[in-house]
Amino acid sequence: MRTALVIGTGLIGTSVALALAQRGVVVHLDDHDPEQARTAAALGAGTEEPPAGPVDLAVVAAPPAHVASLLADAMTRGVARGYLDVASVKGGPRRELEARGLDLSAYIGTHPMSGREKSGPLAATADLFEGRPWVLTPTRDTDTEVLNLALELVSHCRAVPVVMDADAHDRAVALVSHMPHLVSSLVAARLEHAEESAVRLCGGGIRDVTRIAASDPRMWIDILSANPGPVADLLSDVAADLDGTVRALRALQSSDEDKRGEGAAGIADVLRRGNAGQVRVPGKHGSAPRAYEAVVVLIDDQPGQLARIFADAGAAGVNIEDVRIEHATGRQAGLVQLMVEPKAALLLSAALRERGWALRQ
Boundaries of each ACT domain copy (predicted)? Predict the structure, then answer.
């Protein structure tokens, strides 16, 4: 791949363009908002100048509702040898293109499973997709050359290619992305009018659950409008579980011992099923999740503190598998949880104490 055209210079499009430009591909940028394209170009993502002739690959990075029309326009104009989109829904856009009677041998639907709560070109990074799954949805009609171009793009972005059927992909992202986003928003909405004294008690748990609720609502309306059926089916199941959980909690308020026992059993069941589901979430490097032990350290909110603690862990010969930070409310300090192999926890704890760090249980 020597040349590419990126149509849509938001977070995903600009990140793709940055990754390609860093690998020596000449990238042309196009956006309905010229100012956004100029911003992407200024970041080093490519040039605003239109290509003189067909490029090797055209990448449409737009909301699902606009993908089919942008692809159809590009394909009709013959701007590239191959075409792909990076929208989060795959079945609908392809059916729209088929309905337009287009030859889809030069097209493949794709979806990089990566993003941020922020949007726009200024939020883009060339390493946004590194190590992340990138779904490809070829069909029997997909030309081998186009599939190879898509695989080359994924390689340039240092992502991991995953081949799926388009409709299976849409059901999967409803489960692992779209439905969780709505659930996060529903939980976060409880905080909107909550008393300030309650909000000040927010800790790591509520921050984890509500983090993705900070995303742009307009973008998510576009996404959910393109995949409403599978998301609604999943939320219906969640609603049934919530209804059962409410009944179990009400039973725990009863003065009847048998009812309290039934309530406890109902809560235990949903917690057990939650445990069973959580352990299926892939862990580090996509492997099966492993049990790590947390070494909790109190740090001041000052420059260089994290670098020091990582350096001290390295000097002790301990690899940090993961890290979590919980900020202390009303204090210029926080708790850093260093996740390590259980056999390394005592060694790391002793080494950090020796270097003057304050550890917490």
Answer: 294-361
Low-confidence ranges of the chain (pLDDT < 50): none
Burial class (CB in 10 A: 0-12, 13-18, 19+), 280: exposed
State the Cα–Cα distance between residues 21 and 14, nearest whole angstrom. 10
Q: Give the CATH class of 3-164.
A: alpha beta
Reading the block at residue 215, the tokens are 């995303």
Q: Which residues have CB under 8 Å from 173's CB, separation 6+?
A: 88, 89, 111, 113, 227
Q: Are 75 and 83 in contact (CB under 8 A)?
A: yes
Model confidence pLDDT, tens digit, residues 181-237: 999 999 999 999 999 999 988 887 898 899 889 888 988 898 899 899 999 999 999
Chain region(s) in the chain for CATH 3.30.70.260: 293-360
Radius of gyration of the chain (CA): 24
| 293-360: CATH class | alpha beta
Any idea what the Cα angle at residue 85 is, between residues 61 and 146, rounded to 5°? 135
> Which residue type is seen at 337?
Q
d(CA 46, CA 15): 11
